[in-house]
Amino acid sequence: MKSALHEVLLIKTGELALKGLNRGTFEAILMKNLRYRLKPLGPCTLRKAQSAIYVEPESPSFDMDEASDRVSKVFGIAAYSRACVVEKEIGAILEAAASYLADELADAGTFKVEAKRSDKSFPLQSPAICEQAGGYLLERFPHLRVDVHAPDVLVMIEIRDFGAYIHARQLPGAGGMPVGSAGRAGLLISGGIDSPVAGYMMAKRGVELCCIHFASPPYTSERAEMKVVSLLEQVAAYAGHMELHIVPFTHIQEEIQRSCPEDLFTIIMRRFMMRIATEIGRAEGCGALVTGESVGQVASQTIPALACTDAAAGLPVFRPLIGMDKEEIIAVSRRIDTFDISIQPYEDCCTVFTPRHPRTRPKLEKVLEAEAALDAPALIAQAVQGVRRRSI
Ligand code: ATP
Ligand code: MG
Question: Can you state the angle between helices 23-38 and 64-71, rounded to 10 degrees?
Answer without folding.
Answer: 140
